[in-house]
Design a protein that fits this description.
The chain is built from one helix and 14 strands. The chain is mainly beta and 209 residues long. It has one domain.
Length: 209
């Protein structure tokens, strides 16, 4: 099963998420100057690209929240709509670490519900979620194949985890995924174990404070 491998300096033994959080500082939000901003916490990218979702595939997008923050909205942006009646389901998971220090999605924080992906444009779910400092996963699945906007891998991309690949070329595989029976169905709790890695273009879900 594909996993993330990374090293973080510590002053003692790591004990799961809590141990990592005490020794990691990165990507705080700057002042939004009075205008709520959209972001993928812990990420930045120079330009956006787009890619089609695979139907009935659940994607786990790793994020890092620098300080406890309440987010009021989950959003995706549809570039090319899927078939009529198709939807995307959005949610958030806690991050967990196995005994080897490899990060995986764990308990479900929220299943925020679905939005239509049959038409283009930004799709929002207004739901308040307070995320504690540390790693989490945004989640998205669909029963269709809409083309969504995400980071452009041909441009500069920064993420809160190490990119990997099975060769010495581009190291941009950092989104975990797994096939599910129905991409419109309720999100599993705990998360279904991922069995694939895909590239940064699949970081579709944004949060707004």
């Amino acid at each position: 099963m594909p996993v993330f491998r990374f090293s973080i300096p510590t002053h003692g033994q790591l004990t799961g998420v809590t141990g990592v959080q005490h020794h990691k500082t990165m990507s705080p939000f700057v002042e939004d100057v009075g205008n709520p901003q959209y972001a993928i916490p812990g990420w930045w990218h120079f330009a956006r690209g787009n890619v089609a979702m695979v139907a009935d595939e659940l994607y786990y997008i790793p994020i890092y929240v620098e300080r406890s923050i309440t987010f009021g909205r989950l959003t995706i942006d549809v570039q090319t709509g899927g078939a009529g009646g198709t939807v995307a389901r959005l949610g958030i998971y806690e991050a967990d670490f196995n005994s080897d220090g490899e990060m995986l999605p764990g308990a479900l924080v929220t299943d925020a519900g679905t939005v239509s992906v049959a038409t283009t444009g930004a799709k929002h779910i207004n739901e308040a979620n307070t995320l504690a400092e540390g790693f989490h996963f945004l989640a998205i699945s669909s029963d269709g194949t809409p083309q969504l906007y995400g980071p452009d891998c041909a441009q500069a991309v920064g993420a809160p985890v190490s990119g990997q690949d099975n060769n010495a070329v581009a190291k941009n595989l950092m989104i975990l995924s797994v096939s599910v029976a129905d991409g419109s169905a309720a999100l599993p709790d705990p998360a279904t174990a991922p069995d694939a890695l895909v590239d940064a273009r699949f970081a579709f879900v944004m949060l707004r404070r």
